[in-house]
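USER:
Make up one protein:

ASSISTANT:
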Amino acid sequence: MLPHICEKPMGIFSRFKKKGDVNLSKSDFKTQSEDFEVLSVKVSGDFFEKFPQAKKKDNYTGKSTLITNTAILSLFGNKVKITYNPSEIELNEDKFINQMNRNLNWIANNESEIKIGISKKLLILKNESWLQENESELSKNEFIKRIKLTSISFFGKGNSELIFDDGDLFWEHEIVADLNTKNKLTDVNIRG
């Protein structure tokens, strides 16, 4: 399926893209904000050693606002939500979006590689622990056919988190696949 950009939420932009030709711009994203309040935080003693990029604060509680920029892209035949938090960006926003486009083009051209990597991590788990009563073991191809990309979140350094609908493989949990900035699959889990 050819990737193309979908207008938010009206329909599809008139500019259809060939596979691997994603070219999002800042204007393609809708900014959303959500107010929240943190009531309590407990930080373990070694947290800042394990996560040196985290900033130490005197107080982690209080009211805040989460800003998210969102666009919808058709990828692998699915409407995929693309998000990032502009406050996390370490580059300027235009450079960040250019990096995001490069990563999205890589993702668009490597669906099979991504899904094979996910199946290597989760197929054994499915067949050993998540089979329904009287359900036969799944093959790699059956596993791959059932998972569908639903969203991609990009983070400050350009790494990303791909969320897949599990096709009820894991009783409607999400499959989470992390890609580093060089598009290497670094972690795969189920969530929910």
Remarks:
- The CA atoms of residues 148 and 164 lie 5 Å apart.
- The first helix runs from residue 47 to 50.
- Confidence is low (pLDDT under 50) at residues 1-17.
